[in-house]
Specification:
There is one protein chain. With 204 residues, this protein is an all-alpha fold. The chain is built from nine helices and no strands. Helix 5 runs antiparallel to helix 6.
Length: 204
């Protein structure tokens, strides 16, 4: 028999199980030479299970980082949140695929917890990212505000500087002996007002 060629101590060390447990396996005629089948026997048996991590690693491959949910940290601005939202969506899909494809029953339980943790994080992140995106659409950059004010003030200044000429050529002031003097007085007042405007703006 193939099982007789190796000692109980060999299997106990190989699978990381107590010698008594290995002896029980042999008495039950469980397949000690087949880690996958042996693991399945343990999983199907009632009662408390021994530490099967070493046997599981032999049967299903080594434990990977898939058994941990991914940590996500973000800056609270829309671009970072939206980028992370897409990453978390991909991570959630991947963790569910890992869960579906995992042959180990015990690891499927762990991977399902990872999937649920990612799903919960995704549900928490969606409203934050949506709110940040909405607020981002309502915000205007400082450069855009600055350019708008520069353009508005330039147009306002042009309008102000034309007032003296329009007033001086008005029919009411044409009756005066020197309408040009009216233009100069108004022009002086406008220059004074503009100087005060720019002085106040530069002080900010």
């Amino acid at each position: 028999m193939a099982n007789e060629k190796k000692t109980l101590a060999h299997y106990a060390e190989l699978y990381g199980l107590p010698l008594g447990t290995i002896n029980n396996c042999r008495r039950r005629k469980w397949p000690l030479n087949d880690p996958a089948e042996l693991l399945q026997k343990f999983m199907n048996s009632p009662g408390k299970k021994p530490d099967l991590r070493k046997l599981e690693a032999l049967a299903c491959g080594p434990i990977t980082e898939r058994l941990q949910s991914k940590e996500f940290t973000s800056k609270p601005d829309a671009p970072h949140l939206l980028e992370e939202l897409e990453n978390l969506r991909a991570e959630t899909r991947r963790s569910f695929k890992d869960f579906e494809e995992e042959p180990s029953v015990t690891r499927r339980v762990q991977l399902h917890k990872v999937y649920l943790a990612n799903l919960k994080a995704l549900s928490n992140l969606i409203p934050l990212a949506t709110k940040a995106e909405e607020e981002g659409d309502r915000l205007v950059s400082a450069d855009a505000v600055s350019q708008t004010w520069i353009r508005a003030i330039s147009e306002f200044r042009t309008t102000l500087e034309l007032i003296p000429r329009r007033v001086a050529t008005n029919a009411l002031f044409k009756k005066l002996e020197d309408p040009v003097a009216v233009e100069e007085v108004i022009q002086g007042e406008i220059k004074s007002a503009l100087k005060q405007l720019y002085t106040g703006a530069n002080a900010q």
